[in-house]
Amino acid sequence: MASPDLIRGACFLSSSPPAPSPFRPAPSPHWRRFLSRSPTPPPARPSPLEMALLYYTWGALCQLNAKLRVQQYQSVAAIVFGDGSSHSRLYPLTKRRSEGAIPIAGNYRLIDAVVSNCINSDITKIYALTQYNSTSLNSHLSRAYSGARLSKEGFVEVIAAYQSPDDNGWFQGTADAIRRCLWVLEEYPVVEFLVLPGYHLYKMDYQKLIDAHRRSKADITVSVFGNKKGEDLGFGIFKLNGENQVLEFRENHEMSTRKSLSVEENLVNFDDNEKCNFPSMGIYVINRNIMIKLLTEYFPTANDLKSELIPGAISLGIKQQLTQTSSFGSSFHDRDSPLYTLPRHLPPTLVTDAVITDSVIGDGCILSKCRIKGTVVGMRTRIGDKAVIEDSVIMGSDTYYQTGISEGEHTSIPVGIGEGSIIRKAIVDKNARIGKNVMIINKDNVQDRNMEANGYIISGGIIVIIRSAIIPDGSIL
Ligand SMILES: Nc1ncnc2c1ncn2[C@@H]1O[C@H](COP(=O)(O)OP(=O)(O)O[C@H]2O[C@H](CO)[C@@H](O)[C@H](O)[C@H]2O)[C@@H](O)[C@H]1O
User: Fold this and answer.
1) Range with lowest mean pLDDT among 39-43, 81-85, 147-151, 387-391
2) Is 350-404+411-471 a CATH 2.160.10.10 domain?
3) Comparing 437 with 242, which gets the higher pLDDT?
């Protein structure tokens, strides 16, 4: 059944770190150290002309290296998925936005992590395929990545689900979405597609994945967790044979439909020998010609990548390589791989007599005499006197910067946290108006309850205040 040109050599799992890329620019030279290595000490002091030549040559080499490196990875296009389903585990944060648009760490959106990974890996042709609840995601992507940070040929192109004379209705799944966008994705003659879910928070150098893919001459390379913990979280599992070739892939269908995870129920076990099972990160490198053949010739009606195309490719004998990711940090202060987002030009946060510990504060906040501990405070948040916020996430305010009540507003409670309010172990979504002396503490220790009509839900014991909700003065939740 399989076409011979689709079947390549055996692919192996390698846990050793990839060889350093020859295209990585070398550290900048230090001429003194360079000279001190000279075999005949003491070294002759170089003339100004020699120094100039040395610097010139070194600079030219670095530039050439950087250019080659960029060219190499520009032959990859990233396909980042927005969201395709109304069943999100992060509801109600996804009531009005897709998962990738959820605000994180004060100033960012979740999708910034994946897009920044691409940019930092010199992959600057980025297609974002979005569908469900995509308004704020589309708006963020198109405003944040309008070209300034990308290379000359780089772009982030948002392709929202659309209808045409040939295609009716929504994207039916990830494979269907790619198939229907092939006419755009084929615009550049790239060699590989890097497929990425847009809702993951991690830092990863995709170059290593692509280098491993190219070295092994695989048709498809999948990224798996190096430790086995992912299994417990209900991830899809790749099963390998003794030679580390992919034998089978099993997706946990429970995962995409349930709102909260329960460890026992989500265990997927292929094999008693757990060494064979590797949790999938949902990240794939697929050769462009293989992707096109799979979508148009072999499985022209398949809708889903993970449950139809990948298992289908395995059944065809298309060789798949696995690369392990054993650790991936997510420092926001890494100068070499920054996290990008929309520049908003907000004023610095104003803190007046507040006590803040172990917290992250976004831009443009006004924090009065409050106490904040173990909390993420999103941009444009206003917190009143004597408020106490602990172990919480306050997402801030969206588009406008409110310090008082404007004319025509239907409530006298301003956006932000009112004086004397206490919030513990809660998430307050954007534009929420928390009145004065409110207590959001889950006083009855409820685990799960839907109180949407009152502006909140409780999920896993955490109170989540819904976007733009109004919690009146003196409320105790
Ligand atoms: N029609 C559509 N239009 C636009 N976007 C759509 C879409 N249908 C789905 N998406 C989005 O595409 C991304 C990938 O979704 P999948 O359903 O393929 O895998 P999922 O993310 O559930 O699990 C994957 O990631 C986990 C790790 O988190 C792995 O364990 C698992 O095996 C792997 O499949 C998600 O962001 C999803 O919202």
Assistant:
1) 39-43
2) yes
3) 437
**pTM for the predicted model, two decimal places:** 0.81
Q: Quick check: CB of 174 below 6 Å from ligand 1?
A: yes
What separation in Å is there between the alpha carbon of 197 and the centre of ligand 1?
Answer: 6
* Chain region(s) in the chain for CATH 2.160.10.10: 350-404+411-471
Q: Is the CB of 199 under 6 A from ligand 1?
A: yes
Residue 458 has pLDDT above 90, yes or no: yes
CATH of segment(s) 68-325: 3.90.550.10
pLDDT at 254: 46
Every domain of the chain with CATH number 3.90.550.10 lies at 68-325
| ipTM > 0.90 (yes/no) | yes
Predicted confidence (pLDDT) at residue 12 exceeds the cutoff of 50: no
Query: Using 50, 70 and 90 to split pLDDT, how confident is the model at 229?
Result: low
Atom in ligand 1 nearest the alpha carbon of residue 251: 32
Q: Which of 255, 270, 309 to mutate to test the pocket of ligand 1 (most atoms within 8 A of CB)?
A: 255
309-320: average pLDDT: 86
pLDDT score at 123: 94
Ligand 1: distance of its center to the CA of 304 in Å?
A: 9
HEC profile for the chain? Answer: CCCHHHCCCCCCCECCCCCCCCCCCCCCCCHHHHHHCCCCCCCCCCCHHHHHHHHHHHHHHHHHHHHHHHHHHCCEEEEEECCCCCCCCCCCCCCCCCHHHCEECCCEECHHHHHHHHHHCCCCEEEEEECCCCHHHHHHHHHHCCCCCCCCCCEEEEEECCCCCCCCCCCCCHHHHHHHHHHHHCCCCCCEEEEEECCCCCCCCHHHHHHHHHHHCCCEEEEEECCCHHHHCCCCEEEECCCCCEEEEECCHHHHHCCCCCCHHHCCCCCCCHHHEEEEEEEEEEEHHHHHHHHHHHCCCCCCHHHHHHHHHHHHCCCEEEEEECCCCCCCCCCCCCCCCCCCCCCCCEECCCEEECCEECCCCEECCCEEECCEECCCCEECCCCEEECCEECCCCCCCCCCCCCCCCCCCCCEECCCCEEECEEECCCCEECCCCEECCCCCCCCEEEHHHCEEEECCEEEECCCCEECCCCEC
Whether 330 shows a pLDDT value over 90: the answer reads: no
| Tens digits of residue pLDDT in 161-186 | 988 888 888 899 999 999 999 999 99
Ligand 1, from 79, 80, 81, 248: best to mutate by most atoms within 8 Å of Cβ? 81
